Request: fold
Amino acid sequence: MRRLFLGVLMALVGFLQGQTPSERPTVLVVAGLNPDHGLGVRVAERLPAAVEKLAATDAELRAAMERVALWVVPTLVADQQASADAAPLRDLRVNQTPVDDDNDGLVDEDGPEDLDGDGIIATMRWPDPEGRLMPSKEDPRLMVMADASKGERGMWSSTTEGIDNDGDGLINEDGPGGVDLDRNFAHGWKERERAAGLSAPSEPATRKLLQQVLDHGRVAAVYVLGHRDNIATTWRTNDAAGGRAPNGVLRDDVSWSHALSEEMKGILEANDGADDWPDGGFHHWAYGQYGVPAFASRVAYRPELPADAKFAGGAAPSTSEGRWLWIADQRKNGFIPWKRIDHPTLGSVEVGGFVPRFAQTVAQERFEAIVAAQARAVAALIKALPELQVATIHSRSLGAGVFEVEVELTTRGQVPLFTASARKTRVVRPVLLELSIKNGTLLQGSARQLVDDLGPNGRKKFSWLLRCSGTLEVSVSAGSPRTGSASASLRVEGN
Amino acid sequence: MRHGLCCILTGFVLVASALAQNIEPTPKARVVIPWNHFHDYAEMTEVLKTLERASDGWMRLESIGKSVEGRELWLATIASPRDAANATKPAMWIDANIHGNETQGTEVALYTLWYLLENRERLPMVRELMERAVFFVLPSMNPDGREWWIHGPNTENSSRSGKAGIDNDRDGLVDEDGPDDLDGDGSITTMRMRVARGGTHIIDPEDARFMKRVKPGEEGTHVLLGAEGIDNDGDGAINEDGPGGYDMNRNWPSDWQPDWIQGGAGAFPLCWPETQAVAEFLRAHPNIAALQSYHNNGGMLLRGPGAESAEAYSSPDIEVFDALGKAGEKMLPHYRYMTIWKDLYTVHGGSITWAFERLGIFGFTNELWADGQYGAEFGDQESFRKDRTLWDERLELGRNLRPWKAIMHPTYGPIEVGGFAKTVGRVPPPFMLEELCHRNMAFTLHCAAEMPRLSAGEVHMERVDGDLWKLRLEIRNAGLIPTIADHVARHAAVRPDLAQIAGELTVVSGGFLKGPVQDEKFVRQAKRPERLLLSTGVPSRGRVTLQWFLTGVNGAAPKGRVRFEALKGGVLEVDLPELR
Reply:
């Protein structure tokens, strides 16, 4: 156990110094891709100890951790965290790279302002005949898009709190920064959106992470804590044309990915799922191009409401936002009542709405429960990883000193040895199967061969023809850095 | 008196020698460079430094980064010395040799530098171009690959890669089994072996230097064993994991696709130091308005899109490419103007398509040297081989075709190696290299001359009534290339042109119009009219008209200045007319 903890500490240190962690197949956990998801960072920092604690009472996990390592990268935005957490409290997806978001030749010239001085960048709403928003039927404090097909007319507009700093008629269209690191990877990368970066990856932090994963060569699964989520909802299935990069899980990966996803969903009590189209996220790259199981969790899922929950107006919460509003009312925080103020260009506006990062604000007890649940989800991923085994090895004499040696390789674990994505992208190294003969010659078959598929049932036979005139001694080893290795040997007394 | 006479005589001598220079049919070059030679890295570096020293400050040499093996990525800038406007003048980017074996482009780039510097004083057309434009020239983007092709054993087709190690056969070893120059002649040719049975080829009865495949059912005397090499790593395969093994011209961010869709693309866009350094330079110099990349071979002037799935280019942009491409066909016999995906093949993540689609730089890839220049018709393989063989015999006196030579192969036993060396096919024969350089340079200078050339038309200011004035100013572009390509304008990828007015005045309203003036068609900018944003720029051989409604100070006429800034067209400043 101490070995595990030290290994992970070394991993945390190793990341900072550009070294790579242990020699075993590795589950990589990444948090802090965005500066405004501090909860993910705090949970990630607690994970190694939490997983270690679980292993104390879970024999299967303990056994898995003898051959699988855990590598935690708690944040990619350490240098930005203090300023991101400083007042005013605000959403902040992007890093500090200057970006001319509105393409007007001025950079970062129009960001939000705390107009009512409450230390929070909230929302502004104002009546607007060309607006597209209207008060929700659940509760008028919520603003929703009007549905023209139902004859609804939006008469409101909203944006984040602030003024038109550069006088171009737009408010807060070019704030400080930046690039969203969790949209800066190549799978599904949105070339034309400035927040996705000028290339995939373009930022030093993402380029470094990518290079470390590729150099490490043993990452067998990825788990991301942040704004993204592919657990609360089932992974969408790929429907891209053949020869194009997949936009979902490949058909042959559906069964294990759905099963694992369901298991994690139960552990985490994940809800409010939404589509997770590939758009440059790290976990999108990890599955779609690197070919390993990759999951992302929002971390702070919504607590369930009692069945009879109602708003003051009598309506029952029916949307995710509505439910969060009901929770905010119970907690007496999290939603700022709309309050009128004067705005320099818009005239009379109201400031209010959800407090940024409200979902992440959890009491200590709930935080501990979240840490424990995330540790169980990571444990499920560790236990699901494939374990390569040499199931059987035997020989058959064909006469004249000729033997057939046959070996069956199998894999144990929910996740196949190579996912369909890994076989397609061919980025991860195949398994190297080697036969060595002590005193004989190989007549037929390869002494070294590469294996990247054990078939749909996860088992495959390999055979060789040898000639040996004395005692037959052969040994077989199979392995790769990402899968670990297995070996077996055989000895048949001489004839 | 005598002093004055000396001056006059000296003057006569100077004028006489200058006149002599001008009437001399082939003046001696100030810097003499052999144009029938492929320069390796050391020689190229020496040429560049010599040109810089002799350039009177018109050329500046710098390194923009280092290759995988630590060679400098030399960048030469040609610009008027100490001219503050250089940072905003339209600039032309020229690069070559991104593929290691695509060698002759480097000579074209060096020739371009040399020719401009040699003729700056001699030819007014050259001087005028050098004064109003800047040239950024990167003679070799892949100096590691270049060095490997020139000095290492290769075919005409190998190796386009850089020298970062790639485990092509995924066996955990990197670059462990490349081709081997078994007969030590500097080229990788073909291996053949005489066999008693199962032969697939016979010696060609028409030309004993070649092998001919037998018909099915017939017995041959030989088998062909592929390119020269041995099984270095004992895995049963020969030459399956040579040096490198990637393609830097598939590594750029636009429509980048992973390796299984686009072979050689690298682990992620701009993953290599060479592509990263060039991308950073291009982004840092938004005044680059045109681009030329040199490759081989085939005799082509290529433009994007690179893939059918990529967004099609629009008519205004295609018209610019068409005009330049067709001009190129006239200047480069045997070269055809083509669209990459439609006329050649699909390329994901190519450099010139990224430069156009994200940076708005009109650019061509020239595939240097066409088969037709051997005098060959585009016939079948066999007639092409015959043409090439005649060429080798009669014009190059046997320089390229290696006769079959017996050697001992470690696993095959006695075999023979022979065939065409790497010096034929994709690279021109040395005696035709200078023409290739000059014609391609001339095409490039033609494109450079067509970069945006902005000028202000007349300023019209008139009183509307009372203290309200109307100001109109035309900005004209005499260049074929617009200040902002339609593609990047539609995607807001490049900063709009800016028209700013300031002085003793107040702006009441402002806007602009493209094309012929019609009062009601002005696009009014509602906010901050003193800083107009022209997202569509100034069109190809076209104009925009700026219009402001102004008041002056204390009832006087407005006084001040208009400043027009186009990233790819430079800066114009125009004073308001002095009126009472």
